[in-house]
Amino acid sequence: MRGGAGRADADGCRRDQPGTKPQENAMHAPFDEIPSEMEVGEIRTRGVEWGDQLVRWISLPAGVDFTPLFVGLPDDRCQCPHSGYVIDGSITIRYADGTEETCRAGDAYHWPTGHTGWTDEGVTFLEFSPAADLHPVLAHLGAQLLPAT
Question: Confidence class of residue 142 from pLDDT cuts 50, 70 and 90?
Answer without folding.
Answer: confident
